């Protein structure tokens, strides 16, 4: 538990229990003080749960995990089982080191892959089985180091082999040597730069919309990583929204706006971590209606700063506060009520160039904590070959050569790597999640010419990635899909 938390922290079990009353922290509105100052004072008194996420079994070391079982050191997980070191993974099982994946099984080290079994070291592939280092492949089986393939079997470097030849060639790969594995990763990155055809965007079934990674969206503009929605503007990462604007990490909203990590609502505005109707400036409230400036409430109506009012009193006081707020009304919750240090938040994924000075000037928080450690051996000193590594490595504290953070190899991770003969990771798991995730958070498009028809297109690949072959939607469909 962080020593510098600005509010009391309860275990999730205690927080959801009946032994405390958020209304007991209620404050009377003081018209002589700014509203946000009062909201911050209230926020610092009301307990928060140590984890968000519910209906889990054996997920104590994961955050933002829901309806899952046996999840270790992972974040943003829904309906999964037996995962470790995963980020934003849905309905997947028995896998390690997945980022932004859906419906995966027994897979390792994949980014934006869907519905695959024993798929490893791959990106943007679907419906693939028993394969390694695939990029933009669909319905492939027994393939290695290949790209843009459809319905293939026994391919290596996009060359067709017979079953016998394939097995002989596959045996030449040694994923158990860290050095060899690294050379395959470099080869794969070079394929992405020089050989693979990249789609103009990753939107599927969209109409009248602009942005990237949208599925089933209509009239969504400047929207990213968003699904099953209509008429949204300026949104990042979420789903099931209608007529909503300026939202990040939210789902199930209608007629709502200016929200972050809101889990559902109708006419909810300027709020975070809440589920509500007809409410504004909420933080951490569940199933409330007609509440304004409240923290940690459940199933309440007509409350302001965690105090109960009648409907008439509520309307009157709410209007007075809005009038007192002046221009501040309509702004999102200020940085001063942010619940963690900016540089430890998901903000660094989307806006990595934000500086400490900018955040502190806005009243936000920045961690100065040094997480580096000297207590362990550099992971680069591990034996190169997995076949020469025994389970005693699990008891060894390792230092990541890049972050200098300390980490270890869990028993289940060791067994997984041993069974597959995959070299153990040398980098800290935070970096293993953060680095691939960066590929999926580009919000700015760059100008390119279609590789096939040469028409001008805008695509979400920064020029420094060096992708040479980017295809417009029509040409991609014609030549690849
Ligand atoms: Zn084209």
Descriptive overview:
Among the domains are: 61-199; 377-437, no CATH class; 446-479, no CATH class. The protein contains ten helices and 28 strands. It is of the alpha/beta class and 481 residues long. The strands form six sheets. Strands 3, 4, 5, 6, 7, 8, 9, 10, 11, 12 and 13 form an eleven-stranded mixed beta sheet that branches. Strands 15, 16, 17, 18, 19, 20, 21 and 22 form an eight-stranded mixed beta sheet that branches. Bound molecules: zinc ion. Zinc ion binds at residues 450, 452-453, 455, 471-472, 474-475.
List the helices and strands and how they pair.
Layout: E1 9-10, H1 12-16, H2 35-43, E2 48-49, E3 61-66, E4 69-78, E5 81-84, E6 87-90, E7 93-105, E8 108-111, E9 114-120, E10 129-135, E11 141-147, E12 153-156, E13 159-160, H3 163-172, H4 178-194, E14 198-199, E15 204-207, E16 211-254, E17 257-260, E18 264-269, E19 275-283, E20 286-295, E21 301-304, E22 307-308, H5 311-325, H6 347-350, H7 356-361, E23 377-378, E24 398-399, E25 406-407, H8 411-420, H9 429-437, E26 446-449, E27 456-459, E28 470-471, H10 473-479
Parallel strand pairs: 1-2, 3-4, 4-5, 4-6, 5-7, 6-7, 7-8, 7-9, 9-10, 10-11, 11-12, 14-28, 15-16, 16-17, 16-18, 18-19, 19-20, 20-21, 23-24
Antiparallel strand pairs: 12-13, 21-22, 24-25, 26-27
The structure holds zinc ion.
